[in-house]
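INPUT
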Amino acid sequence: MTETFTFSPDEVKPTRETVFENQGIPPGITVSGPVDSICEQALAMLARTAAPAGITGEISAAEFEQVYQGEGRNDPNTPVGGIFERADHLALFTVTIGERPAEEIARLFDENEFALASMLDAAASAAADNAAKLAERRYGDVLRGDGWGAPDGGVLRYSPGYCGWHVSGQRKLFDYLGPEEIGVTLTNRFLMQPLKSVSGIIIAAHRDVHKFAASFPFCRECETRECRERIRALFAE
Amino acid sequence: MGLLDQIAEGVINGDDEQVAQLTQQVIEQNRPPKQILDVGLIAGMNIVGQRFKAHEIFLPDVLLAAKAMYAGMDLLKPLLIAQGIPSVGRVVIGTVRGDLHDIGKNLVGIMLKGAGFDVIDLGRDVAPEEMVRAAKEQDAAVIGMSALLTTTMPAMGEVVQLLKQEKLDGKIKTIVGGAPVSKDFAHGIGADAYGFDAANAVDRVRQLVGA
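OUTPUT
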């Protein structure tokens, strides 16, 4: 069963620190007055233009195995491949912040407002990530409301294009979930439109199930190592 | 401080109004356009580029400076064209076929223009044949390609192969970049250069054209 939902722009609004980090500005740096002002403008613009929405759909492990195989282009060994079979619950998801932020970014570039365009792009990317976090939290809350998870349940999301799950896996994910319902479509190169969208699988399992060593071949090329932080957060709860 | 130094200072400070006003002033004084460009606008952007590489300033500061430079260039460009003054070089840029992410490509284009290059931006989702055709028609020295997806990166290799087939690989150089692109990948497909960020891409393009 699929479920659609919306968030307010305020709910997905990123922090200034996150936006600056996405702009390559290290934490703790005092930015100039004009840069500070541009960040404020970008966040205000994002609040005016973002229309965050999401869709989730529960899926069995057997069905997800089919989806996960995608076009057969995943790495031979992946974290998700070792996790989903031990999950208590699985849900495919897609979230988006809509098309308008991207339209604004393009307009600003055309008008030579490069810094504002780039800052809005950074803010919009962070907002899409926040929408994915909210979808993950929302699904976890529903499960916990039904009595799942206490005391050691952990809910984490994984996306095609990361951790050995080839981006071509989007095709089967879209076929199964149907995120066109919230206005997200897929190009023939597996690219989501609007661009500021995130898709993947939310996995609810005993938190130990989510633990894996970052020693896969693709981990060497990963710049974010975000998985480490997310796994740590599960055990800090 | 002379007016051209003040223009450079205006670019560094990202003050587009000051740059436009001073550029207009020196144009009215009949200063040679090439001198205004080199000693004022490009000199300012060069310092901005150095500070960026030294991590003294960050991307938004560079983009504010670029806007200020464009404010001066808008006034100067008709004069440069009228006097037949060539740019540092002409570069065709685009996001490769199937890829719609264009922020990185836009930033490279902005910084190339800031360094005095003539930039033909083909946009996003550009077929390899279109890249090569545009470079030939525009007599470009370099094709710059950007990709954000591993699935679209192979199109970069197709451009390199097309240039080889047409025996243009010595004449039109190629540079690739984008989050999943690496130096090894660039070498593997036979690209002439790899830019790890926008500022680095400008340096590499300078090397390619011998500027």
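end of record. Chain B has nine helices and five strands.
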